[in-house]
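# nightly structure sweep
# worker-07 picked up a monomer target from the shared queue
# config: single-sequence mode, recycle default, output format = C-alpha cells
# input follows
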Amino acid sequence: MTQDAALRSHLAKVLDWEEAHATYDKGVDGVPEAVRGRVPHGLPYSPWQLVEHLRITQRDILDFCRDSDYRERAWPDDYWPKDAAPPSPAAWDESLAAYRADRAAMKALTLDESVDLLAAIPHGSGQTYLREILLVADHSAYHVGELVAVRRMLGAWPSS
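# output follows
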C-alpha cells in the first residue's frame, strides 16, 4: 500500500471510528422517541437538534467539497433546527439515513485518488480537501459526545 493510500484509508476510518469515543451510530442507536425532542435542564439542545445539526453541517461541508456553485449558509440559523422535536418519527429516521449516506460520500471522496487532499478547493478561500475531511471528523466527534451527555441526562443511554 502506498503512503497516499494508507493516509486515505486512515482518514476514511476516522470519519466513523470508535477507538477514542462513541461513534455516531452508537450515539443515535435506540434513542427513545419520547426523548428525541427533550432538552435537558441546563443544556441548549435536544437529541433531535444535535442529530439534525450533525446532518446539516456534514452535508454542507460535503457540498462545499463537491459543488463549484456552493453558497455559504447563514450561521447559526441555517445549521440548527429551531424546534426541539422532530416534526415526525419519519423525520428522525430520514435524518439518520441522510447523515449515513453523506458520511459514505465523504469516505468515497477521501478514498478517491483523483482528489488531491492537499489541494485548495477551487471555489474556496484556501481550504483543502484534507482540512474539510478533518473538520467533518472533529465536528462529528464533538457533537456525538454532546449527544451521549444529553442522552445520559435524559436517562436514555444504555447502562451496559
